[in-house]
């Protein structure tokens, strides 16, 4: 995406394991697109640096590698997402969910890019929190593709295990719950409801399909108005009452939210591509906002899965 972004020029790609190799030898879809070689050094004068180091490694990297005072940092790890961890160099990382913190992101130097599950779930709940409608327990069941587990294979990411299989993991205690609850507390005054989250591993490579339900006595028409109002100026979020499916968002930066009611139960379905809106696409969306580019620059991607 950066290779094709009209406002971006890639200065270096740092790697601890591939230094000296052509980038296209690892990311083979870039053969013929770039002559960049992985570096074991950073250029401290770049305008923006994306940290894609794995969770828990960004703080150590920044302690060892100093960047210029003008360099903006977008961290895709989880080191700075929670308020208690956000302080860096006498400043703070802003939580980089554009649909929640757009004005702060525009002025920020440091951004903590949200987690992929957290993105899908927060976008599903924030309009309810904004209107003080989260007053009962929230039940969440969300399934992610195998790419959410990263590049290093493990017992539960090997194709032979994942194929024709499904399982849950970290039930009720997934690491993204902290940032989800933090955002709900910031949005709805006095929020203290249970958030019960079951994450699942799916038999597919990309995407997150999340279903969330809670009780409310508001009508579906009223709720739809709240969601449409909340997202009216957000170019990547679509609200519908139709049934939705993952192929509508894979390889795009979109989040589609579907709403339905059964008696007092509201069902919210939220879908994103975990690698795009859930990670790299959202990081570039944040970059666009930080540098005053049109928000959709370089992100008008189209699904290639139909």
Automatic annotation (TrEMBL):
The Semialdehyde dehydrogenase NAD-binding domain, residue ranges: 1-108
InterPro entries the record matches: AGPR, AGPR_AS, AGPR_dimerisation_dom, AGPR_type-1, NAD(P)-bd_dom_sf, Semialdehyde_DH_NAD-bd
Residue ranges of the TM segments: none
EC annotation from Swiss-Prot or TrEMBL: 1.2.1.38
Pathway it works in: Amino-acid biosynthesis
Keywords: Amino-acid biosynthesis, Arginine biosynthesis, NADP, Oxidoreductase
Gene Ontology terms describing biological process: L-arginine biosynthetic process
Residues at the catalytic site: 116
Pfam families: Semialdhyde_dh, Semialdhyde_dhC_1
Record GO terms (molecular function): N-acetyl-gamma-glutamyl-phosphate reductase activity; NAD binding; NADP+ binding
Keyword Oxidoreductase: yes
Protein name per Swiss-Prot or TrEMBL: ArgC protein
């Amino acid at each position: 995406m950066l290779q094709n972004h009209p406002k971006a020029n890639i200065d270096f790609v740092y790697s601890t394991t591939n230094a000296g190799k052509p980038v296209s030898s690892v990311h083979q879809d870039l053969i013929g697109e770039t002559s960049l070689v992985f570096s074991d050094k950073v250029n401290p004068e770049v305008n923006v640096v994306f940290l894609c180091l794995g969770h828990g490694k960004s703080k150590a990297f920044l302690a060892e590698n100093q960047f210029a005072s003008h360099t903006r940092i977008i961290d895709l790890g989880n080191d700075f997402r929670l308020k208690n961890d956000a302080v860096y160099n006498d400043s703070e990382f802003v939580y980089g969910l554009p649909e929640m913190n757009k004005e702060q992101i525009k002025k920020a130097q440091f951004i903590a890019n949200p987690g992929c599950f957290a993105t899908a779930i927060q976008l599903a709940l924030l309009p309810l929190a904004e209107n003080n409608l989260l007053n009962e327990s929230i039940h969440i069941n969300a399934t992610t593709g195998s790419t959410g587990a990263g590049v290093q294979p493990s017992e539960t990411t090997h194709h032979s295990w994942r194929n024709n299989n499904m399982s849950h993991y970290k039930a009720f205690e997934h690491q993204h719950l902290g940032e989800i609850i933090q955002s709900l507390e910031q949005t709805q005054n006095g929020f203290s409801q249970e958030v019960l989250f079951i994450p699942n591993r799916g038999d597919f490579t990309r995407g997150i399909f999340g279903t969330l339900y809670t009780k409310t006595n508001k009508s579906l028409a009223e709720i739809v108005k709240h969601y449409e109002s909340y997202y009216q100026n957000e170019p990547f979020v679509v609200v519908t009452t139709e049934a939705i499916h993952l192929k509508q968002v894979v390889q795009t930066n979109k989040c589609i939210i579907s709403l339905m009611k059964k008696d007092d139960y509201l069902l919210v379905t939220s879908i994103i591509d975990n690698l795009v809106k859930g990670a790299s696409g959202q990081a570039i969306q944040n970059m666009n906002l930080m540098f005053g580019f049109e928000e959709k620059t370089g992100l008008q991607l189209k699904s290639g899965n139909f």
